[in-house]
Amino acid sequence: MRGRAKQIAARRPVYAQELARGLETFFTPMRTRCPWCGSRHLSVRLRTRDHLQGKPGTFVLGECLDCGHVFQNPRLSEDGLRFYYRDCYEGLGEATMARLGSSPLALRLYRSRARAVAPSIRPSLWLDVGTGHGHFCAEAGRIHPGTVFHGLDLGEGVELALSNGRVAQAHRGSFPELAAQLAGQYDVVSMFHYLEHTTAPRAELRAAHAALRPGGHLVIEVPDPQSSAARLLGKWWGPWLQPQHLHLIPLGNLCKALTREGFTVVSTDRREPHVPTDLTSAAANVLSAVLPSGDVPWLMRRPGRLSRVGRALGLAAAVPVLLVLFGLDTLLAPLARRTSLSNTYRVVARRD
């Protein structure tokens, strides 16, 4: 812990300097039109905060009343994206994300995603976009033993995936910017919980079309903004994941966009991709909102002893509750998968 405390202390002046410029510098101007269909008929879906890291700011999700697209409005700027992603998947948050990425639940989800293309496709080369540390590729390689996996991501995690042997090749950068050099190479391109993080989802679909060989397949999983769980749990619903999720796309909208970009939709699935954590993640978000903050570098100073003790006691009391809720999520998963409570959908599309 002493090493972590030193890391936090070293980062604190950097965060303080950025925050001194004001949070407004982290946002682009508010949109008056839907970024998906161009409609002016917009409403506010919800206002929330950063439950995952607890960084400062209020985030608004708008909704188009014509096409149903849900989007962050105002959206984070490039500076804002760097600020809110920092120390989440890498840096201070790297060890936590690595543990989550190799958890039993994550491994089950990876296997399910890998099998989405198993029945009729025998890929030789597969590109996983937004691969992070490459845990999916490592697990999918056991299901597709003859397949070579490449990873692509903006962060240094993809380079760690290469050094750890989880991917055979690492591409670091923006997918649309790298698409030309990757053109026509891949049998499969996957985007698992990636598209909602991007500033221009249609550009990502065009990049996938370019990277795929004719007849190749694109596999996408994203949170479903039409899920009944999103309505029931409101701002506490985990898949809103503000401020990271910039676009939450209804299934029909995504299928139409894929068709326009030169794909044929092969299958859609709202059952199998469901992630059974709705109650658990909602409770964790509430806990994040009510507990005193831990020692983090975006606070001006380390929390006092009373605050630290209060947080430790609150976390200790919450652990049994979270375990019970995770058990309920698991028990309710078969029901959720068969109803509108499912929180995720999957699309498999073929490049024409």
UniProtKB/TrEMBL annotation:
<dbReference type="InterPro" id="IPR029063">
    <property type="entry name" value="SAM-dependent_MTases_sf"/>
</dbReference>
<dbReference type="GO" id="GO:0032259">
    <property type="term" value="P:methylation"/>
</dbReference>
<keyword id="KW-0472">Membrane</keyword>
<keyword id="KW-0808">Transferase</keyword>
<keyword id="KW-1133">Transmembrane helix</keyword>
<protein>
    <submittedName>
        <fullName>Class I SAM-dependent methyltransferase</fullName>
    </submittedName>
</protein>
<keyword id="KW-0812">Transmembrane</keyword>
<dbReference type="Pfam" id="PF13489">
    <property type="entry name" value="Methyltransf_23"/>
</dbReference>
<feature type="transmembrane region" description="Helical">
    <location>
        <begin position="309"/>
        <end position="328"/>
    </location>
</feature>
<keyword id="KW-0489">Methyltransferase</keyword>
<dbReference type="GO" id="GO:0008168">
    <property type="term" value="F:methyltransferase activity"/>
</dbReference>
